[in-house]
Each structure stands twice: as C-alpha cells, then as structure tokens.
Specification:
One of its GO terms (molecular function) is 8-oxo-7,8-dihydroguanine DNA N-glycosylase activity. It contains 16 helices and three strands. With 324 residues, it is mainly α. It folds into two domains: 256 residues, Endonuclease III, domain 1 (Orthogonal Bundle); 59 residues. The termini are far apart.
Length: 324
C-alpha cells in the first residue's frame, strides 16, 4: 500500500491518530487573518442576530448555497423573529415562506423545533449539546454550529467543507464525502484551538474563528472540484497542494442526483403551484394538478408523499391545498 492509500485508510477508517504533515499554528494564524479580511458579510454573523436566528440560518443553509439563503432568512426573521412567533404560524404560511430553498420538510421540522423551544425552554435555545440534539430536525452538525457560532462554546463543527479543508491541508489527501469517520472527527477535535486565555467577544474566540474560517475557505476557495489554490491563504502550508493534489476531481462517494424528471422535481412543481395561487385561493383542483406533470402515476406518488410528509392535504375529488 502506498503512502496516499495509507493516509486514506487512516482518514476514513477507525484510526484515532493521523499524521499531520504541516504546521497547525501557521494555518490557524493565516486563516484567522484571511477570515477577518475576506469573510462574506452574512446577516447572522458577528453577533448581529439571536441564537435562534443562528439556528434558522443553519437549517436553511443545509444543502443550499448561502447566497440563496440570505433573502429568505431576512424575510423569515422579520416575520417570525423568535421561536414563539414561528410556533404559532400556520403551516401553509411556513411552507410558502420557505419558497425555493429546497427540501421543504425542513420548514415544518423547524416549526416543530420552534414549538419545543417556545414551550419547554421559555423561548430561549438550550445551551447544551444533548438538549440541542434532542430538538426536532437538529443533528450533530447544527447542534455543534449553534454552540460555536451562537454561544461561543469550544466544540468541533464538522461539515463537508470543513472535512475537505482539514483532509487536504493537514493530511494531504482528498476527502471523498460520505459520513464523517471517527478519524475525521478525531482530527477536527485535535486541531481545534484552545480558548482558555481568550478574553474577547464570543464570535471572536479562537475556536469560533477557526470553525468559521475553515468552513468559509471550503465554501469559497477550497472547493470540491475547482479549488482556487492560487488565491488560498494557506497554499504555502497545504499538504494536498504539496503532494500534487492527489485524487482531485474524482467522483464523490455519493454522486449528485440528477434533478430533471425526479420525484423531487415533481414535488417541487406541486408546491410551487400552491404557493403561486392568487390571493384568496387556497386549492388546486384535480384538473390543474394533472396539468403539472404528464406521468400521472409518478404525479400521484409524489402527491401521496407530500401528504405523508405533512406538506399538503389531499381533498375529496383529488384537489390539494397547503395544510392549515
């Protein structure tokens, strides 16, 4: 087994230690400076929103580009600024406001989460990992991100962008997606800066800046297919670049699903038709539904799945509407 395969095995297996090929302190310093000079000015950053606002931004950003999220997040927070407000919102309004963010089930899960926060936590987000993880629709990444970005807690935040940057910069190999391995989690925790002597605002703490800057680098510079190595602030320390960028461009473990003709497209057509009804109209009759998609077998399957997910209601006669 060659050196690259050995590193892949360590990174993707159950190893708890990984040979780091470069200087973590140099990278931390360079990334912190780059972050302060170049980060995107998103409205939920730098302490300008509540912890609830941070959670909303993280849920909206799942599998969705940040640039698309900003207008939806802004309108959402103006309308429902806290969990209590969202908990009282009609489901139809929540689904409509979600618009074209994709995966609309997230909208209803966020509303369920708001209900729990409003009723069980007096409209304040809990501040422990286990309590956040127990909220509807909240997984490991979102719980960790809220603790770091909203509360300034020292915790490793692990998403696809962070895993890719850490794998490339420190181990010198490509990250191929899939679920995070124990070794990748161990690497992220091992590299997390110490906040022990930091006397600064929560969003300026070293661990928070590290999480944000590594994620931002992965989203804007160290991208999956076409990394901008010439513009990278840590190019001089990057083990991946030094190794000749092995494996760059290889297929990820889970190829992206085509969209055209999929159930996801059909579901989106139904929801968009309901969102676009004229004021005062709430129902799409069966004839209008059938015009949305020629394959009525697939159409009916998608309508049934939308109903099962609680995103629509099927009416007598085959019409549909958004839930109350």
């Amino acid at each position: 087994m060659n050196d690259t395969n050995t590193m892949h095995a360590a990174l993707r297996g159950n190893a708890t230690t990984i040979a780091i090929e470069t200087d973590a302190d140099e990278i931390e310093t360079a990334l912190a400076q780059w972050w302060h000079d170049n980060t995107r000015d998103l409205p939920w950053r730098f302490g300008r929103t509540t912890p609830w606002g941070v959670l909303v931004s993280e849920v909206m950003s799942q599998q969705t580009q940040m640039g698309r999220v900003v207008p939806y997040w802004t309108a959402w927070m103006e309308r429902w600024p806290d969990a209590a407000a969202l908990a009282e919102a009609p489901k139809s309004d929540v689904i409509t406001a979600w618009g074209r963010l994709g995966y609309p089930r997230r909208a209803l899960r966020l509303r369920e989460c708001a209900h729990v926060v409003a009723c069980d936590y007096a409209d304040e987000l809990p501040r422990t990992y286990d309590e956040l993880l127990a909220l509807p629709g909240i997984g490991d990444y979102t719980a960790s991100a809220v603790l770091s970005f909203a509360f300034g807690e020292r915790i490793a935040v692990i998403d696809t962008n962070i895993r890719r940057v850490l794998s490339r910069a420190f181990v010198g190999v490509e990250s191929f997606g899939g679920a995070a391995s124990p070794a990748e989690r161990a690497l992220a925790k091992r590299l997390l800066p110490d906040d022990g002597f930091a006397k600064c605002r929560r969003f300026d703490r070293p661990s928070v800046v590290w999480n944000q800057s590594v994620m931002e680098l992965g989203a804007t510079v160290c991208t999956a297919k076409s990394p901008l190595c010439d513009a990278c602030p840590i190019a001089a320390q990057c083990a991946f670049l030094r190794n000749g960028r092995p494996g760059l461009g290889e297929r990820r473990t889970r190829p992206r699903q085509r969209f055209q003709g999929t159930d996801r497209q059909v579901r989106g057509l139904v929801l968009n038709a309901l969102r676009g009804l004229p004021d005062g109209e709430t129902t799409l009759d069966r004839g209008s539904v059938e015009k949305l998609w020629k394959d009525h077998v697939q159409l009916d399957k998608c309508i049934a799945s939308l109903d099962e997910d609680g995103l629509i209601e099927i009416l007598p006669g085959g019409g549909v509407r958004l839930p109350d």
